[in-house]
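Structure in, sequence out. Go:
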């Protein structure tokens, strides 16, 4: 591989029935949870969860890779490798754990811990229309909060990359990060 360039796209995979119907099932007692999967099997796990009628979400991004023979290949990769998200209640945990490719639901030694709805809403929002890429090295920077818009109140770290401001969303539960370009007027210090 000679070079790689993120295209700035984000796609999500949800149950096929939800896409066709255009609705997201809402149920009492359902929360979002991070699911740890077999490496490089996230898309397959989402497919199997869909067959079990479990609402799932896999944030992805698109990248162009240039191989040694100068061939350009467009790849759709998971934003958080080996992780996806499911929206379930306590009775549906067994469906998730029985799905091929799923290793465990992320939590402490006693129970799975839910991911805040605001983090999932942020990942599913117009955030996907902006330049998005995985962010593996968290740089020590100023902690900021989004002060306006649909994601008002969400906190993260501000970093600078190529003279552009980036808001780094951190999902502490799975120790993963994602960076998105954002305007400075939409941020305030915490």
């Amino acid at each position: 591989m000679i070079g790689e360039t993120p295209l700035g796209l984000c796609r999500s995979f949800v149950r096929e029935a939800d896409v066709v119907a255009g609705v997201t099932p809402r149920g009492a007692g359902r929360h979002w949870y991070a699911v740890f999967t077999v490496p490089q099997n996230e898309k397959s796990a989402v497919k199997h969860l869909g067959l079990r009628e479990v609402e799932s979400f896999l944030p992805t991004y698109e990248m162009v890779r240039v191989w040694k023979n100068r061939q350009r290949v467009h790849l759709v990769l998971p934003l958080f490798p080996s992780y996806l998200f499911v929206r379930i209640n306590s009775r549906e945990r067994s469906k998730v754990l029985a799905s091929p490719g799923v290793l465990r639901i992320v939590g402490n030694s006693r129970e799975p811990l839910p991911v805040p709805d605001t983090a999932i809403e942020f990942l599913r929002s117009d955030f996907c229309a902006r330049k998005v890429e995985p962010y593996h090295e968290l740089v020590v920077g100023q902690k900021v909060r989004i002060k306006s818009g649909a994601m008002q109140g969400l906190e993260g770290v501000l970093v600078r990359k190529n003279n552009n401001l980036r808001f780094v969303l951190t999902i502490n539960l799975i120790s993963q990060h994602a960076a998105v370009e954002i305007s400075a007027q939409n941020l305030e210090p915490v």
